[in-house]
Amino acid sequence: MRSLLFSLSLLCFASQTSLSWKKEEFRSCDQTPFCKRARSRAPGTCSLIATDVTISDGDLVAKLTPKDNDDHINPLILSLSVYRNGIVRLRIDEDHSLNPPKKRFRVPDVVVSELEAKKIRLEKFATENDPPSSVVHVGDGYEAVVRHEPFEVYVRERSGRRVLSLNSHGLFDFEQMRKKGEGDNWEEKFRTHTDSRPFGSQSISFDVSFYESSFVYGIPEHATSFALKPTKGPGVEESAEPYRLFNLDVFEYDHESPFGLYGSIPFMVSHGGTGKSSGFFWLNAAEMQIDVFAKGWDGESSSRIDTLWMSEAGIVDTFFFVGPEPKDVVRQYASVTGTSAMPQLFATGYHQCRWNYKDEEDVAQVDSKFDEYDIPYDVLWLDIEHTDGKRYFTWDSALFPNPEEMQKKLGAKGRRMVTIVDPHIKRDDTYFLHKEATEMGYYVKDSSGKDFDGWCWPGSSSYIDMLSPEIREWWGGRFSYKNYVGSTPSLYIWNDMNEPSVFNGPEVTMPRDALHVGGVEHREVHNAYGYYFHMATSDGLVMRGEGKDRPFVLSRAIFPGTQRYGAIWTGDNTAEWEHLRVSIPMLLTLGLTGITFSGADIGGFFGNPEPELLVRWYQVGAYYPFFRGHAHHDTKRREPWLFGERNTELMRDAIHTRYTLLPYFYTLFREANVTGVPVLRPLWMEFPQDEATFSNDEAFMVGNGLLVQGVYTKVIALNSSQEADGELYIDDGKSFEFKRGAYIHRRFVFSNGVLTSTNIAPPEASLSSQCLIDRIILLGHSSGPNSALVEPLNQKAEIEMGPLRMGGLVASSGTRVLTIRKPGVRVDQDWTIKIL
Fold first, then answer.
1. Where is the Glycoside hydrolase family 31 TIM barrel domain positioned along the sequence (predicted)?
2. In angstroms, rounded to a whole number, what is the distance separating the alpha carbons of residues 199 and 759?
3. What are the strands, taking DSSP E only, across 262-326?
């Protein structure tokens, strides 16, 4: 039985040419030595064999050594772990007992602590002789296999059908660290920048295969199609680039490119005609490049998709997710990296932002205009110009002399404010934050050990070293009301530029040989820097509220685990139809890889949208999980009331529609918080065997009951059996009390002419509500009833037929719906309504 289905008119796409970004400022694969080397290797190059296989501390452990080890290369250590619900973890690192020059970086604070309790401690393994292999039971009919010679790891069903494999094509390579000798020169140069590379090449690469797969998806962030296109092999241009994962400040980005943007999530999901899915995740914070091979690249014809994963540094720390259903894969990934934080209710509404609302008078005028034009909104944002000389945690005293009073006026209407706080700190000896960070040694260092000095919005800047838990805790304390003077409980935070962006750095970011705590090179932690910054800010808001209120923090940079700390957006897009179009596959990809609270700037950050484009963007943006209008300071003002009466009406209706659907959205956010299943979903997640949906990235589902597609009708329908079901989640919309059971979770089922409300919350959950349901709408009911019987009240309710309205919009003159008005039932109680 399926829930109520909505099909909504949104947009028709026109094609325009995108503004070009400064491609020459960024490295291609050919300009990136580790990528160029890995791509040039031929299949079968790997000569490693697995030896000394044993069980140690509940894991299967082995040594990997070259078959003919004439060069006396140190062995690598392989460790394979198994977890409940179809998860296999494979780690490969240098042998620490042999004292390598430096321990490789292992990414901390991403894998949730709860995963350890799900570990299945291995006690034995089986052996197979053809070929020699070690086999362990995974559960639910799956096995993990380590083939000894040639070395390979794969997961299979007990029937023998393979699901996922690593090194099936012999492309595994692991460059071990070396001690620099006299005369060694390991430097790499790009444009005017030199990377000292004190430990030489330390890259890792390997092939991963997905069996019985039609397409692969994931590995954001790229502005490209949802189903990942091949980057190498038959039919692909030789100049094609792999998908790059390297967090960068890229503005006016190309709308159809594998080039990496602001975030990196090395998690890929496959799906095939059998309706089954699987997933692969590599926990690594260094730069990564990923090739998707075209069918037949190896001369074979199969239903398998092969990929090549390449990273500059780190270790092999990978997870195989067996699925088999699409939602199983995202749940398995969420059990490793965590589910989405439950947002406050206000954060799921509409946000109004601009670089910059210039002063308190401007803020008050914009706020009043929303009321004047009957346009709901919840949050007004301030960009960098609100500060005193771009010193964060300060206010421009001339433009914002009374920040607390300004926030309280918004708060009196139930509205909030968001201010921006970036990781670059102005190097000014009179600035309290810089002075304290310098004295305590809390900045990232350059390769010589001095505080790193780069250029960003304030000019000369240093960057807080967020890798350190101690420094993150200190940073969180900066958000207390005492330290952030002028802040109030209704003020929340926006973390921008946290890739990190360094205007005069290589590729507009921090040098790879910069140093973090413990001697960790920036190359090893780069993609996680913004994640730790986001974490520290979010934890700071929780500290500020003494653990009572949920935080709201928006981040531009992303990494696995970001979903636990707040929302993200797709960065500096452009006012073009193609950027509106590509926002859908970008957000679908983010949701599939755990980041469900995401959105794109309505109207495009750069440029001036034509009225039709802006209207269409509001109409689709009303279904983004994160719904915010934002614009560059060089653009014309574009608040919804500035484009004529008809366009204002259309944008107002789109925003009203969002607010009409807020209970549904909030329920979906709770589902994501519990299970990891995203709010925005690809069609094949709900219809896994419908092959027509596999490459569709213009239609999408919001939950399992709202279908958004480029047609000009609006429908709420019962299925062909005159049945439907759905859920509703309610809490106080603000605090963490829902974790202690203070919530309502109801299921509504319509069958045989009866609508039933039942409790599906666990027995310990309880929240009383006096809220009455005002009306119930059914479309597709075949009869023409006159009334309804409400039980246990034993009273009748009126029924009327009329057009469907949502947020002021009328579906069509021919679309009639049945409306039960004022049934008098409470949202937190059991009841039935029978159509008479």
1. 341-668
2. 60
3. 267-271, 277-282, 288-292, 305-311, 316-321
Burial of residue 654, with CB atoms counted within 10 A of its CB: 0-12 exposed, 13-18 middle, 19 or more buried: buried
For residues 400 and 333, the answer to whether their CB atoms sit within 8 Å is no
Please tell me whether residue 535 adopts helix, strand or coil conformation.
Answer: helix
Reported as a single tens digit per residue, the pLDDT across 631-654 is 999 999 999 999 999 999 999 999
Q: CB–CB of 548/736 below 8 Å?
A: yes
Terminal CA-to-CA distance of the chain, rounded, Å?
23
Residue 157 one-letter amino acid:
E
Q: Which has the closest alpha carbon to 199: 96, 64, 102?
A: 102
Show the tokens assigned to 216: 């692969």
Q: Are 82 and 121 in contact (CB under 8 A)?
A: no
At 708, list the tokens.
């958004």
**Strands laid side by side in the 795-803 sheet:** 724-730, 744-751, 754-759, 831-835, 787-791, 795-803, 816-821, 775-778
- Smallest CA-to-CA distance from 281 within 335, 333, 206, 338 is with 333
Instruction: Look at residues 536, 524, 526 and name the one whose alpha carbon lies nearest to residue 502.
Output: 526
Q: Rounding to the nearest 10 degrees, give the CA dihedral for residues 679, 683, 686, 692.
A: -170
Per-residue pLDDT band for 710 (boundaries 50, 70, 90) equals very low
pLDDT digits (tens, 9 = 90+) for 32-78: 999 999 999 999 999 999 999 999 999 999 999 999 877 778 999 99
The catalytic residue positions are 496, 499, 572
